[in-house]
Structure formats: structure tokens, C-alpha cells
Amino acid sequence: MVQIEQDILSHNNCFAEANRRFFAERRILALNFVSSPGSGKTTLLVKTIEMLKARYPLAVIEGDQQTSHDAERIRATGIPAIQINTGKGCHLDAHQVGHALEALDPPEGAILLIENVGNLVCPAAFDLGEHAKVALLSVTEGEDKPLKYPDIFAVSDVMVLNKIDLLPYVPFDVAQASDYAVRVRPGIETLLVSARTGEGFDQWLAWIERRYAACVAS
Amino acid sequence: MVQIEQDILSHNNCFAEANRRFFAERRILALNFVSSPGSGKTTLLVKTIEMLKARYPLAVIEGDQQTSHDAERIRATGIPAIQINTGKGCHLDAHQVGHALEALDPPEGAILLIENVGNLVCPAAFDLGEHAKVALLSVTEGEDKPLKYPDIFAVSDVMVLNKIDLLPYVPFDVAQASDYAVRVRPGIETLLVSARTGEGFDQWLAWIERRYAACVAS
Lengths: 218, 218
Description:
2 copies of one chain form a homodimer.
Chain A: H1 2-26, E1 29-34, H2 41-52, E2 58-64, H3 69-75, E3 81-85, H4 94-104, E4 111-115, E5 132-138, H5 145-148, H6 150-154, E6 158-162, H7 174-184, E7 189-192, H8 201-217
Parallel strand pairs in A: 1-4, 1-5, 2-3, 2-4, 5-6, 6-7
């Protein structure tokens, strides 16, 4: 089993490397959004797109087991989106993303937003060639998730706590969540947002723009 | 890959068959709880245990990638619980459950509650020998989940919509969720509960007791 796992991952890593070259050549910032199902990834993306689309070329890859609901929500913003249905699969892989890139053909200097399958386990192991994984956690899910699903937080550069408009109605300790995330990923930043109301988006957009500036300068 | 998948699943099915025999011999009702991370499986279990423990022998198997938080929460109710840490694994398998059964040694006529790893994809494929899968969906996750993650709802006998105390604060269409679930699993029942407040537990406990009666009579 270990051998099989190594083969699958090394196969994936070849494709991830090709995606990374593609991003470097076009100076594209690629972000890979990971979370539980229902944490609000698509709503975060839609709001983020609305706030950035006047200033940057944007493109989106959507991953789900089934349906093209999410890509349709993205396309309603006027931004191109490709939906990948993974069928039985529990994560996106670099090969799928490579094919989507051919179809999307994002322009030089774009920001590419990749929404992974909602899953706090499997996407951790699969490098898509992205610059950073963004782990989304909704405050309705409980602050213990970084400890219970450590692998995904350990490979993410930022934890975005979403649905903070619900904080008055749920038991959730923000400081504790942030502390747990730092335990599994020293130095990880925590940002607080409500993708529904737009609260906290100043800091979230500033984070993206810092990463974009670093990517374009490199 | 298809061959490997078939080998893994057929290996799992042998152990599931052994678990099923174990349950039949002891007239144990076994329920396998599946959901996204943070849907409230453990809170549902704790409240269910408090309401049933005076009348039935109970035992719990807890699955998580890491930590034994959930088993500790269960043991605080006075009920025996075994924690299985799956490490890199994204679901419980029947072999792990078989070992946990040896350690738990649940008595004749017990109700066994198995909390799977929080994941709407992988646990769908793995029969643990249980009588029924119970799919939990929190109303904060959006009503589209049965369509986006159809496999898990297709193998579940009931969909428990949790956190209904939050319905006033989130956009969630209960009838639509129920309709989507029926599309992927014709005849699936939808129950509404709040594991935090106890609302809806009359119907939920009645569902368990009907399954228990059927199991003991068989």
C-alpha cells in the first residue's frame, strides 16, 4: 500500500511541477482553497471576485464530486470557471488541474482561484502546483478542527475563519482555534471574515494582494 | 487502479461480514454516523446517549484523524468509547471496527454508535457491517450537499438535519434539502434536530427505537 501511495503521489507531483512552470511563465498567482463541505468556499470566492475583478484578470477551477452548481455561481460574476467533477474521488489532483488550465487559458498576471472538493483529509496530500493552500474553517464547525484534521492545516499558509456573523449564536473560541492552528502549522495567520456580509475582507484582500505582489515580482 | 480499489473493498467486505455476524449473534444495533467535519456528530451522540442510557446498554466507536477528544466527551457520559485514529486515512474501515469491538466487548442487546471520520466522500464506500448509515447535515452547510456529495446520501437510511436552532440566521431551505436527498436516495427520511437544545429528539429517538426493535426481533 505504501508503494502504491508513493507511486500515485510521485505521478501527481510531476503534473504539479508542470502546473508550477505554467504559473511561473505567466506570472499567475494560484491559490488552492480547502475546507469541509459547506464552510462557504464558493461564497468567499464570489465575494472575493466581485471585489477584485476590476483590478486583476481572474479565473476559477471548481472541484466537486458532482454537479456544476459552483462553476455556475462563479460564471454569474462574469469570470471564467471550469468545473471538475471528481466522481468517486475525494480531492482534485494536479493532472485534472493541468487539463483545466489548457481549457481556461488564463492570461499573464492572472489570479487563479482553485476550489478543492470539500474535504479536510484527502486534499492535504495532493500538490496542485499552487503558491499557497488557503484553509477555510467556518465558526459553526468548532475550534478543534485544526487538531482533529492536522494535515490540511499543516500545509496551509493561512486559516480563514468564515461566517463570523454567526459568532453570537454558536460556541466558538477564536483565540483557541488560532492557537490550535499554530500548533500544527507554526506561524500560520488567522483571518476573520464573513463571506456573506463582507466583514473582514479588507484584511483578506490585502493578504491576496501581498501574495500576488510577491508572485509577480519573483 | 480499479483492480486495487476492488481488492481493498473486497478485503474490507470480509471484515464487514464478520462484524455483521458479531452484531447478529449479540442482537446489537449498529449505526454508522457520517457527515462533514463540524456538523455536530459528537454533540448529537452525547445528547442521544443521555436520553437512552437508562434504557439500553450503549457503546461508542469514535473515528478521527487525530486526537481522542471525542472519545473523552463520550466517556464523560459514563458510556464506554474507543477512539480510532486513522492518521492519514479519510474513513473508518471494517477491520479497525472489528478490533475496536474486541476491546469494547459490547453486551447482548446493546446499541453501538459509530462516529466516522468527518468526510462526505470516503466513508460512503466502506461497509462497516452496520445496520444503517445516518447522514448528518448541519443547516449551516447549505441544502445542496446531497447533490454535490451524492454517494454518501445514497447509502444512508436517514438524513438528520442538525443545528436547526440556527435556522433563523442562515439561508437554508429544509424542503429543498429533503428533496435533494430523496433524489439520490429515494425514500430517505429527513429528521430535524438541534443536538444543542434537544429540539426534535422525540422523533430522532423514535427512529432509533424502531430500528432497535427491528434488529432485536430479527
